[in-house]
What does this fold into?
Amino acid sequence: MDSLLELFCHVDDFCKAFLPHWNKQLLSARRPRGRRPSLCMSEIMTILIHFHQSNYRNFKAFYLEHVMTHLRNEFPGLVSYNRFVELIPSVIVPLTHYLRHACLGTCTGITFIDSTTLAVCKNPRIHCHKTFAGLARRGKTSTGWFYGFI
It folds into this structure.
């Protein structure tokens, strides 16, 4: 649990610094409708990051089996799974900013790129295909020839 506590402290410190700047940039300061969520933004972000650090592949199973049973003391204001899923969009901007600036290091000049091909059409239709003319081209991979983006 120490790693979860460290993660929460790091995320909470980030939220305390980020939220005032973000609120200044919002177009209007409308009063939020409905009641205030029982989980704060840093708690929601911590649960989402902790899911990606866990061995679970399914978020629903992670939340119901792990968070609701084992982490209830750490997060006293836990909400149902459906309500938590409704709260996720409210933390997308801060979470993206946190992952971008707090978790990624500086660029060293070495970049890894996924080289998966994206086929546009089947090979017999290459001459008729006009949608990506000039952008798509023929290529060859270990599985064969294709027409699309490399």
